Amino acid sequence: MSSKAIWKPPKAIRGGISVCFPQFGNLGSLERHGFARNKLWSLDNDPSPLPPTNNQSSVDLILKSTEEDLKTWPRSFELRLRITLSASKLSLIARVRNTDNKPFSFTFALRNYLSVSDISEVRVEGLETLDYLDNLMHRERFTEQADAITFDGEVDRVYLSTPSKIAIIDHEKKRTFVMRKDGMPDAAMWNPWDRKAKALPDMGDEDYKSMLCVDSASVETPVVLKPFEEWKGYQELSTVSSSYCSGQLDPRRVLYGFQ
């Protein structure tokens, strides 16, 4: 969570997990990352076809299109989110239903603000050799050359056709975030670094050192829904404590399992 996060609507809160819908970034005519993250949601009393959780550590939320939304994005929708919390694991099921009488398309992301000890000591495993769009280079397409992604400056990328499991390894905290996802083929990554952090009114000058955004996303190919069709995306964030013999965690053990 940013030390200068603004908690008043209609500003997005810089931190937590932002729901980017119906537009990721500035890939369209709407405000950056769409309007869903700026809205007040309601409790969803009928989350079918998902079974009821009957679980105190879960909540079902719903966001429906309003008259105001229809002026800027004239498509009728229902956006549902099930959030489930258990020991060292946070799961989200996002669903979008087309309640309009014509098809529509959208891009989507769950923007995860991850707390890290020191960004210069963090590495991300699972995205090596993949293509990515670099937003700092006018969305030019590159191929990742590094064995693992490390950070020494601003990063703003969308990795394409990513695996279902990505590991964010924090050497100093001896902790690894494992992100599993389904239905969201892309993964965005963002850290503003020092100069941009100073320019953001809702971010502390030093906040960039202790955060990293790694997002589950469906960006490169927009999702298309016919009337009354539903799309579903799943994300699970868990933590694994990592012990280091050689100063590094073997990333293959994180990505492919501890035998």
Note down, in words, how this protein is organized.
The protein has 259 residues and is mainly beta. The chain has helices spanning 67-72, 193-199, 251-256; strands spanning 17-20, 42-43, 58-64, 77-86, 89-98, 104-115, 122-125, 131-134, 140-143, 149-150, 155-159, 165-170, 175-182, 186-191, 211-225, 230-241. The strands form two sheets. The chain has a nine-stranded antiparallel β-sheet with strand order 2-3-4-5-16-13-12-7-10. It has a seven-stranded antiparallel β-sheet with strand order 1-6-15-14-11-8-9, with no helix packed on it. Strand 12 and strand 13 form a beta hairpin. The radius of gyration is 18 Å and the shape is globular. Residues 244-248 have low confidence and may be disordered.
Helices and strands, with pairings:
Blueprint: E1 17-20, E2 42-43, E3 58-64, H1 67-72, E4 77-86, E5 89-98, E6 104-115, E7 122-125, E8 131-134, E9 140-143, E10 149-150, E11 155-159, E12 165-170, E13 175-182, E14 186-191, H2 193-199, E15 211-225, E16 230-241, H3 251-256
Antiparallel strand pairs: 1-6, 2-3, 3-4, 4-5, 5-16, 6-15, 7-10, 7-12, 8-9, 8-11, 11-14, 12-13, 13-16, 14-15
Keywords: Isomerase
GO molecular function, one term: glucose-6-phosphate 1-epimerase activity
Protein name: glucose-6-phosphate 1-epimerase
Give the gist of this structure.
The chain is mostly beta strands. Helices cover 7% and strands 43% of the residues. The two termini are 35 Å apart.
